[in-house]
Fold these 2 entries.
Entry 1:
Amino acid sequence: VTPLAPGGHVHAPIAYPVTDPSSLDWDVGLGFGLITTAGYVRYTCRSGVWDDGAWVAGSTLPDLHIMATALHYGQACFEGLKAYRHADDKAYVFRPHANHSRMAKSCARALMEAPPLDKFLNAVRTCVARNMAYVPPHDKPGALYVRPFLFGSGPKLGLNESDEYTFIVTCAPVGEYYKAGGKPVKALVCGEHDRAAPKGVGSCKLAGNYAPTLLPAKEAKTQGYPITLYLDPATRTYVDEFATSNFLAATKTKILTPDSNSVLESVTRMSIMQLARDHGFTPETRRIKVSELTEGTADGEPITHIAACGTAVVLTPVYRIDVPETDATGKTTLRRIVAAGWKDMVDADQEPTDAAMDAGESDPLMKLGNELRAIQKGQRPDTHGWLWPE
Ligand code: COI
């Protein structure tokens, strides 16, 4: 590297340090900031042939071509799953086979080489094993978030698929995603932008689906909403999903989640729907009209509770959703929807208090979410065989 101007300042590479695991305070909520771990697992596929994989210390990728298709044309996808330390001091990963299937779907849509299942599982297993010191202790909150990702690393100038793909599994210890720390949050419906196109790629976990949600999310956050909700892009009358996670709603007898070709099917959502069935709820995956949130379902049942669910957010209750509505004069006002189950407890202008939170234990979605967390931590029997290795 030579400076452009004689004696000019040149940006020096940053030596990203590996976090010393003994410096981590497991009692303090870790949040979802990035804590770097010892290293990652990397596989490369050239012209359709996968190598045998390597362990790489640290968190940087020094040999990437600047014309890699991922950097220019967004040929990239990722996954998220979690590993939990059980009382036997071993780490168990939640449903990695489901993440592999979803990654294969993302790869197929963007003409990328999907990693074979054995390499995917081996990368997850090795990444967790070599970063075992970063898996939160069994009796502390949190988990090791595991992030597999795959991208076109080969160079192209024309718009073509890459000849080379890099598949990496990295990880970081995490706590609660939202600052509310598991307490209910309020959501803003994104009125100005769509997350996906009607026949687009919303159901694939492609990297490019996420950057466009940053601006609306930032605007929403400055207005006090930690989470943004997207409606169906064709008619904007049905619920799709949150920027970070899937949408769940509960009535007295049913747990509902949107059927839409533009939502990403979350592994957490599949699991919650199964637990709902186990508890005698009718799980319904169907189109959900925004109007049902206030008027109830066609069979007259009010929607009592709403939540966001996904690997990162686990299950985060949503006590209020504000929907922007524009009148004939072009003036936009916010229509406030407070989930019926929270109505008596929450003064709509206040964040839910701890007392409201305790009262919220009547929330069936929170109950299902707590049961899921207990299964993941090994504190309840894993009757569905979700934890890996079994
Ligand atoms: C996950 O829940 O694992 C995700 O990938 C969502 C991401 C916005 C953190």
Entry 2:
Amino acid sequence: MEILRDEAAPIVILTGAGISKESGLHTFRDPDGIWAKYDISEVATPEAFVNNPDLVHYFYNDRRAGLRDPAIVPNAAHLALARLESEWPGDVLLVTQNVDDLHDRAGSKNLIHMHGELLKIRCNHCDLLTGWADDLARETPCPSCGKAGGLRPHVVWFGEMPLEMERIYDALGKCGLFISIGTSGNVYPAAGFVQVAREEAGAETVELNLEPSSGATLFDHSAYGAATDLVPGFVT
Ligand code: BV8
């Protein structure tokens, strides 16, 4: 990577829905995105789950079924990031806002799903957190405690605390390079990571996206285009 003088500098990478677009998954805020079809407040908040659990389950069951489609596979950008992690002499932490499992399937290991995982559920009645590839319904009993009504998708809804924030801020405070890929920069705290990397670590910052994000001016370097074109070239 030409922009780095330290050949073993720790790297933090943030990814968003744009990196999975060319695998066939929808983004959120593009004209054909998920939030053009659904109102966030009706499907992705704790209040929505209390008021209309059937609609929330329908929304996530539909997206879970989409991930089961054999045509949905990691693309060249996911694979390039997994390769970077295995070849870079320093630490590489991949923080994804995506709830899909395409980074996992591509082979990334040092990976944080800060907004949760579509293929996991948890129970509000007990401490169960487990893999789940099927449909979920209000009356599905918890496989651990047996109670119904408590199972929910393991995703972070608006108003909830994203996952593993301490580990993320620790890595941001030490990194030499921060790369943001395929995210519109509209959702916090992820949209603020670039400032933390700049101000606390003095890191070089790079944006790779289809178009300038909301925070585009905060990045030292940027390139605009499809992730499968940009990412493999950038990380070699
Ligand atoms: C929280 C659920 C407290 C899962 C999602 C200021 C500071 C802190 C918080 C806030 C704040 N202001 C407001 C808040 C609250 C709120 C928030 O950010 N609201 C916004 C909308 C104003 N945040 C929260 O509630 C968060 N919790 O803050 O807790 C706290 C405070 C401080 C520190 C710690 C905790 C919880 C947010 C979780 C939201 N969950 N969804 C699901 O159903 O999937 S959000 C949703 O947006 C998805 O999870 C998604 O991951 C996330 C980000 O979207 P993107 O990935 O960026 O997708 P988007 O469509 O927007 O953009 C795609 C981009 O890709 C575009 O730019 C496009 O051009 C590009 N692209 C397209 N194709 C390609 C491409 N790029 C490359 N190649 C291509 N082919």
